[in-house]
Amino acid sequence: MMTWPLGLSAWNSASPFSKPRSADCSPGPDGPRADPDPLCDLLEKARDAGVEPGAFVRAVDAEARRRLGAFLDGVEGYRSHDYHRAGLDPPPVWRQGSTVLRDFSDTPAEPERRARARVGPPILLVPSLINRGYILNLSQRRAFAPYLAWRGLRPILVDWGAPGAAEREFTLTDYVARLEAALEFVRETTGRAPILLGYCMGGLLSLALAQRRQAVLAGLVLLATPWDFHADRAAAQGRLATALAPWIDPVLEVHENLPVDLLQAAFATIDPPSIGRKFRGFANLGPRSAAARHFVAMEDWLNDGVPLAGAVASETLRGWYGDNTTARGRWCVDGEPVRPESVTIPAFVVVPQRDRIVPAVSARALARALPRAEVREPLLGHVGMITGRRAVALVHDPLVRWALKTTRGKA
């Protein structure tokens, strides 16, 4: 809304915003100016093309109105859509504080596949702390965890929940300790050494746990997991840290947790124009189409985040994003530095090349540091690697093959 009138004023000859830095756009006495004004260049091109200024302004105005209208149509269509995610998650099999575990081995419809999953290699799925874990079981059509069960693994999902009374003072060390308790439950329940799978921020928690308990793990899977947060400061991680830095202390002085609305606003700074693009695209979809239902499911998940406990917000946003404590070897869990080079169990690392949340160069640094990592770099995005149409072929199937091979013959 703000860019619309500002954009139009730049083309209005009566507006000071339309005036270039110099008095006019003509070349200087020694030829073309050394510091050409971008607006001058555009005006000269329009003039050379014979575009009448008034017609140009009217065209910009019409296009701005069209885009704004399509955006608002998309938002309204999303708000009024009748899709609601319900009944897709298995009941909890373990609980500690706000955290529960969900066993997906009973989700395959075919009895023989259910039986196979019940005795299959266990894989503990660890999502991020700030987004709901059901991204790994988004919908009937895009269901990562149930697909792993269908292929013969026994996926058990960590559902963190929102921080409650028990988690108000939690640090990352506390969350790793809780994850360790969940791991012990899985080991006792299945009688087998599990694979530990971490997605995004959950990958860092999984890495820390793997370092502590690799003797009882069959392997480690890391999906879109950041490590070198300063590898590309111009990319998403740098922009996110810059957006949040001024707000952390003032907000935590008032709130025990970092509110989800602030986190959502900060993540929106990664690619602000994408918000308009996606809702305009949604406005063109048939409301009953599979694509429209998937869009609504994704948006519901994106808007269903959870706050971060205050100490965790400080450790992650100041430490990881701000000071790059991970790559500098200064991130500690229970007083011990987390060092990927010390994790010698088999690892499967996926580095999505089109990831705008975790730049590939950041995740690649972690893959290089792991001694026994098999690395895949699909042409997918951060969420597309989980729910995209090509995710099964490029990520899920290779992961299953690696997991079955890695656990073959292991108790």
From TrEMBL:
<feature type="domain" description="AB hydrolase-1">
    <location>
        <begin position="121"/>
        <end position="387"/>
    </location>
</feature>
<protein>
    <submittedName>
        <fullName>Polyhydroxyalkanoate synthase</fullName>
    </submittedName>
</protein>
<dbReference type="Pfam" id="PF00561">
    <property type="entry name" value="Abhydrolase_1"/>
</dbReference>
<dbReference type="InterPro" id="IPR029058">
    <property type="entry name" value="AB_hydrolase_fold"/>
</dbReference>
<feature type="region of interest" description="Disordered">
    <location>
        <begin position="15"/>
        <end position="36"/>
    </location>
</feature>
<dbReference type="InterPro" id="IPR051321">
    <property type="entry name" value="PHA/PHB_synthase"/>
</dbReference>
<dbReference type="InterPro" id="IPR000073">
    <property type="entry name" value="AB_hydrolase_1"/>
</dbReference>
